[in-house]
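Input chain follows. Return structure tokens only.
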Amino acid sequence: MEDTESLLAFHVKRFLIVQRGQLLFTRQQAREVTKEEQEQLGAASAVQRQQNAMLMSGQKIDVNLALTQQVLTPVAQSGYTPMSK
């Protein structure tokens, strides 16, 4: 009885691992990233690292500087549509 339970448990675990792996790979979306996007993401992460370092060291963040560095997307480009009534 114990052998069949351990065999069943093994196959159930194996099945769950295979299903989890397939789920992770099917949800993944791959797309080509341009050099400009890489540079923008790199600059944004550098700013984030700088802000995190400032917070950890106890310095205050210059809010006006942070707001002027933001790039605001026009509503037409953001894809925003107001809710219908």
